[in-house]
Recover the amino acids of this structure.
């Protein structure tokens, strides 16, 4: 009997299987198809590069011949002509991602999980997840030998949009803000954008929605239209899939120009109502990962990244629950909150982009300019939640520069940017002048020190965190910095705090500890977790 059954061999499932097998667990991965198999979602994000590197599969991805994706070219915002945005503007370490052919890319990930020790069984279709007393205990599946059962201590449901557990237990909730439909196909002989944007993804807004155009190293180009779900279904019913897709292409000038001599080689295919989230991502004996847990509008090419991230997090949760049952609840909360926060980030950005587009005027765009439920947070709160206290990722900036974003969003991003930059500059000036020693730090109102489960080396571990209103998930702290933060009371100077801290540090480590503490203080101050710092003159910093 395996320790863990992983349902599905896509990016989420193969990642989870790899990470679990590395921790020594017996893993059975059941995949209904035989790879390579077709799948949509070819455009990766730079944020996925570190995950691929951690999995050990990045060299194979680099050698596969996939086109490097340096950024995005968009017809969006207030302009009807294309403009481009490049990853290097906000990500110096990973200035490019890849446009991947998913049958090849997914097979690399699946073979990597097999190479790491997972028992990968292709052609094994899971029919049902078995429960006993409310706990997932195994699966019923069929393969070439017929129908049978397999038991395990834990189930990772990475079954994609099939969502075996979420659908079976009625956990899936459709997102009313993104009731869209995608119709897509693959074309041969398409033109590319002019250099330096030849390998960029093109995102073009048009009357009825928006198009993606993704060049692939195979010579094909992935082309898809995202339209209102109801109107799209009506159009497809009236015209048929191919005629409807060609009708939409004709309405999008830049897309149709790139396809003016192209031939449809595969498709069209249709995906309906594809934005949703599960009300519960972790249950007794199971965890949902990737599209089996949630899926957001593909505007930011977030699907593969969320799947890879979920695979890592899910494996960490299962390992923690099996090795340290006393930490299972804390790890469960950490998994749910971390994954939900990543999902919410892309959801809020998608809402921001939809609401800021004024390049087109139609039912589709008017409906999406007033996105939001009565219970939603204010636009500024939503934006702050979207960036999760982190520096703007780039897309936020181009919304302000190229779009017609709501004033509250503009105010929010500028306040975050200017506040961080101002605090960084003042801290460095104080450090350089020697005035920092006399500064009096204080934790921001509402900040508390806590111990929570955070992701570690393939599992969750308890760590000291500083929880603030802007960082409700908590900022992880080392034991040294946690002790320092615990000393901050709004009365003692930095010099006094350091003396108290270093009194308990061995003399040979005192200088190193002091440098690390000052560096951490600068980061906490820039993040807005520490306030009330004042120069020797008594002038407050805000």
């Amino acid at each position: 009997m395996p320790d863990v059954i992983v349902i599905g061999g896509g990016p989420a499932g193969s990642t989870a299987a790899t990470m679990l097998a590395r921790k020594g667990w017996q893993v059975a991965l059941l995949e209904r198809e035989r790879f390579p198999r077709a799948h949509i979602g070819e455009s990766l994000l730079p944020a996925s590069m570190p995950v691929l590197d951690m999995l050990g599969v990045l060299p194979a991805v680099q050698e596969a011949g996939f086109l490097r994706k340096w950024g995005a070219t968009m017809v969006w915002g207030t302009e009807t002509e294309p403009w481009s945005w490049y990853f290097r503007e906000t990500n110096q370490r990973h200035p490019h991602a890849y446009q991947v052919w998913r049958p090849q890319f997914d097979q690399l990930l699946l073979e990597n999980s097999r190479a790491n020790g997972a028992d990968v069984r292709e052609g094994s279709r899971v029919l049902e997840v078995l429960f006993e007393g409310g706990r997932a205990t195994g699966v019923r599946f069929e393969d070439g030998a017929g129908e049978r059962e397999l038991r395990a201590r834990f189930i990772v449901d990475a079954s994609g949009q099939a969502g075996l557990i979420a659908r079976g237990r009625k956990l899936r909730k459709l997102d009313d803000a993104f009731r869209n439909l995608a119709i897509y196909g693959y074309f041969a002989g398409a033109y590319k954008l002019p250099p330096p944007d030849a390998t960029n993804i093109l995102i073009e807004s048009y009357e009825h929605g928006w198009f993606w155009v993704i060049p692939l190293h195979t010579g094909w180009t992935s082309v898809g239209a995202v339209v209102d779900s109801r109107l799209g279904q009506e159009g497809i019913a009236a015209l048929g899939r191919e005629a409807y897709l060609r009708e939409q292409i004709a309405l999008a000038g830049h897309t149709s120009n790139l396809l003016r001599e192209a031939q449809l080689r595969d498709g069209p295919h249709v995906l309906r109502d594809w934005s949703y989230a599960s009300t519960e991502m972790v249950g007794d004996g199971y965890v949902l990962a990737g599209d089996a847990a949630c899926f957001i509008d593909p505007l930011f090419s977030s699907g593969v990244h969320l799947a890879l991230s979920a695979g890592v997090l899910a494996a960490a949760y299962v390992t923690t629950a099996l090795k340290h049952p006393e930490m299972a609840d804390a790890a469960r909360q950490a998994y749910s909150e971390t994954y939900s926060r990543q999902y919410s980030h892309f959801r809020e950005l998608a809402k921001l982009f939809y609401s800021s587009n004024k390049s087109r005027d139609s039912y589709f765009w008017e409906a999406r300019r007033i996105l939001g439920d009565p219970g939603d947070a204010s636009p500024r709160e939503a934006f702050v939640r979207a960036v999760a206290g982190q520096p703007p990722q780039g897309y936020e900036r181009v919304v302000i520069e190229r779009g017609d974003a709501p004033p509250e969003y503009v105010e929010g991003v500028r306040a975050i940017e200017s506040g961080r930059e101002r605090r960084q500059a003042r801290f460095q000036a104080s450090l350089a002048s020697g005035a920092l020693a006399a500064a009096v730090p204080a934790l921001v109102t509402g900040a508390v020190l806590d111990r929570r489960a955070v992701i570690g080396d393939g599992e969750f571990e308890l760590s000291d965190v500083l929880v603030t209103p802007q960082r409700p998930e908590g900022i992880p702290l080392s034991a040294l910095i946690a002790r320092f933060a615990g000393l901050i009371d709004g009365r003692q100077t930095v010099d006094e705090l350091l003396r108290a801290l270093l009194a308990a540090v061995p003399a040979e480590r005192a200088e190193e500890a002091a440098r690390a503490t000052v560096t951490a203080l600068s980061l906490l101050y820039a993040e807005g977790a520490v306030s009330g710092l004042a120069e020797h003159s008594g002038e407050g910093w805000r």
